[in-house]
Amino acid sequence: MTTSPRIAIDAMGGDEGVRVMIAGAALARHRHESFKFLLVGDEVQIKAALENHPNLRAASEILHTTEVVTGDDKPSQALRKSRGSSMGLAINAVKAGDAAAAVSAGNTGALMAMAKVALRTMPGIDRPALAALLPTLTETDVVMLDLGANTECDARNLVQFAVMGAAYSRILYNWEKPRVRLLNIGTEEMKGTDSLRFAAQHLRESRSCTCILKALLRPTRSTAAIAMLSCAMAFRIPLKSIEGAARFVTDLLRRAFTSSIRSKFGFLVSRPATELLKHHLDPNNHNGAVFLGLNGVIVKSHGSASIEGVANAVKVAARLVEDDITTRIAQDLEQIAGKEVIEE
Q1: Separation CA 32–CA 35 (nearest Å)
Q2: Which is it for strands 129-134 and 142-146: parallel, antiparallel or unpaired?
Q3: Residue 56: pLDDT band by 50, 70, 90 thresholds?
Q4: Residue 205 DSSP SS3
């Protein structure tokens, strides 16, 4: 494992394209001098952007292409561009060993399709899962997956997601006992789909079978939570509700603090607290969703991510490489080998 990970950047992906992707990589390089980069995209645009970031230029190599996967491209269309597009070349660099990880802010469906075809899933994993962090009231975030990347998941998939999400959580927080939870329509055991109930039963029964699953399912007060989703719709509803609530609170505070001279004075007094709230709810501070279960590290940055957001996505990619997420997942999977999940 290299101590100086080389990260492939899809410089053409995202709403802002080259400017923000290069500036984000430069910010990550400024914070972590060991980072090295393979910048994939239009060489003319990349070189122009690098003029403002000599520190990044000294640690980067450019892989030229003008072909781009657009936000409107279907996965099947994107796959046909896999050999020549900036997204496809960044992923293939990971496959070839020319980069330890790839970061893209492009089309999520296309990125998933390309990564799955190029890198394949790890032994013991049927489907990769997309995991991201959501803010909480505690000092740590929640690792949530599968974020709707798979439209249908059976009990076996959910158990595999539990293993991958727990491994990711331990890397983030250095905890041996992350808490695993299934997102359901209620807390009663009889509620939910058959897949959810079978997955929950399997995870509960595994508690006394293997050490690793004891750790996953025996929570303490200082543990992280992982929520696993049964389908795309099950994820989209709570996610959009959370996003909507965050925007509502932010807008409500803005209106309240500008409604009168007295409220404006109140804003000045409470500004430190409101700035802390703003920082906590800013999605750029939690940017960098991870495709878990692949034979390589692929990180998805939000399409509208800021420079700070892109830098955070790069940091996530480097952290997963340095802590060898694929090996950790493989080791955890060995603990449940031979224990099939059967839906009767």
Answers
A1: 6
A2: antiparallel
A3: very high
A4: helix
Query: pLDDT digit string (tens) for 104-146?
Result: 999 988 999 999 999 999 998 998 988 888 766 666 677 888 7
Domain boundaries, the chain: 6-335
CB 153 within 8 A of CB 127: yes
Q: What is the CA radius of gyration of the chain?
A: 21
Eight-class DSSP state of 294: B
Cα end-to-end span (Å), the chain:
43
CA distance 310 to 305: 6
Give CA–CA dist 57/62, Å, rounded: 9
Q: Is 12 left (phi over 0), alpha (psi -120 to 50) or beta?
A: alpha
Q: How many residues does the structure list for the chain?
A: 344
- DSSP for 80-105, written as a single string: HTTTTBHHHHHHHHHHHTS-SEEEE-
One DSSP character per residue, 36-67 reads EEEEEE-HHHHHHHHTT-HHHHTTEEEEE--B
CATH topology of domain 6-335: Isopropylmalate Dehydrogenase (3.40.718)
In whole angstroms, give the CA distance from residue 301 to residue 178: 25
One-letter amino acid at 182 equals L
List, as one string, the DSSP characters of 158-178.
HHHHHHHHHHHHHHHH--S--
Q: What residues contact 219, with CB distance under 8 A and at least 6 apart?
A: 177, 179
Q: Please count the other Cβ atoms lying within 10 Å of the Cβ belonging to residue 29.
A: 23
